[in-house]
Amino acid sequence: MSADTATRSPFVLALGHVRRVDRISPSFVRITFGGEDFAEFGDLGDVFDVRIKIVFPPASGVLPPLDRQSEDWWGAYLAVAEDERGSMRTYSVRELRVVGEETEVVVDFVLHLEPGLTGPASLWASAAAVGDQVFVVGPRRGRAVRSGIEYAPGAARSVLLAGDETAAPAIARILEDAPRELRGTAFIEVPTTSDILSIDAPAGVEVTWLPRAGGQAHGSLLIPAVLAHLGDADADAEVDVRDLEGDELLWETPDYSGLGEEITVADAPTDRYFWIAGESGVVTTLRRHLVKDLGVDRAQVAFMGYWRRGVAMRG
Length: 315
Ligand SMILES: Cc1cc2nc3c(=O)[nH]c(=O)nc-3n(C[C@H](O)[C@H](O)[C@H](O)COP(=O)(O)OP(=O)(O)OC[C@H]3O[C@@H](n4cnc5c(N)ncnc54)[C@H](O)[C@@H]3O)c2cc1C
Prior knowledge:
Layout: H1 3-7, E1 11-23, E2 28-34, E3 51-56, H2 73-79, H3 82-85, E4 87-92, E5 95-99, E6 102-110, H4 120-127, E7 133-139, E8 158-163, H5 168-177, E9 184-190, E10 205-211, H6 222-229, E11 251-253, E12 256-257, E13 272-279, H7 280-293, E14 301-307
Parallel strand pairs: 8-9, 8-13, 9-10, 13-14
Antiparallel strand pairs: 1-2, 1-7, 2-6, 3-4, 3-7, 5-6, 11-12, 11-14
Bound molecules: flavin-adenine dinucleotide.
């Protein structure tokens, strides 16, 4: 790490230029961003479920003029009038790679475009073209190892990964970055059979795609599949999806509790690690079953609401 890197902010604010747009399935568009600001972006090879923030341009189409070298770009961003600031949303990195001299960041955007159920990120992604620009915020390379990464199986001998389409890019990246001897199961619920994508998973991890047919609700396949896999006797019962009060996303990991629960360090390494992400009500429902009915210890699980039905995210 250079002395300069060590003293700089652990986050990079990068101007991302769209280099490629690939409509990889009915519900996913894969967008490749490049640009000189990515030279210090992210830790190659250890991406897992790292989260990044993307700022999409406001109605004018013009991003606010931020000094990307400033250590206080966040303060400068907040000082911009709201209607000129654009919209910030959270995404996963499907791939981080160096091509020639340039670092490229690849993001798989879910297209949810139904009137009343769409938002600025999805709309932007649906119309993105080569040359378009966004701001991308992510960890500085070599500066804050594992910053923004929640996947932490420790010495667990097997993993269970479960999520909906918004979690599919993170699950794919986790499985492609994981040691080849990893064992476990992944359940990924997606809108249609044509949204089943290729993942280079370790041979010992069974990946099951759950395509919703004919407008089934989010979680209607994922919840029973996970519960049946864990031997829950209620797996076949009708699923009662209930979220927390308020507008927040559920965020409960072994070392952070959005609910304010006490964090205790596990005495012994856990045998099995669970990583569950997707619509907040669905994840909350799974949490209720895993923690209350199946007695799974919170130190074994990351439960993460990635979006929330009826709620626009605020970054
Ligand atoms: C750590 C993390 C990683 C994420 N990674 C990804 C990723 O790699 N790819 C990805 O596509 N998303 C990802 N998401 C989810 C993404 O941030 C949200 O879906 C976000 O709400 C999209 O912003 P928007 O502007 O399109 O919609 P918003 O303005 O936030 O919401 C508008 C409306 O759309 C609804 N909505 C939002 N998302 C969906 C959806 N997927 N399906 C149906 N309705 C929806 C909301 O309930 C709301 O009613 C991630 C979220 C987190 C927290």
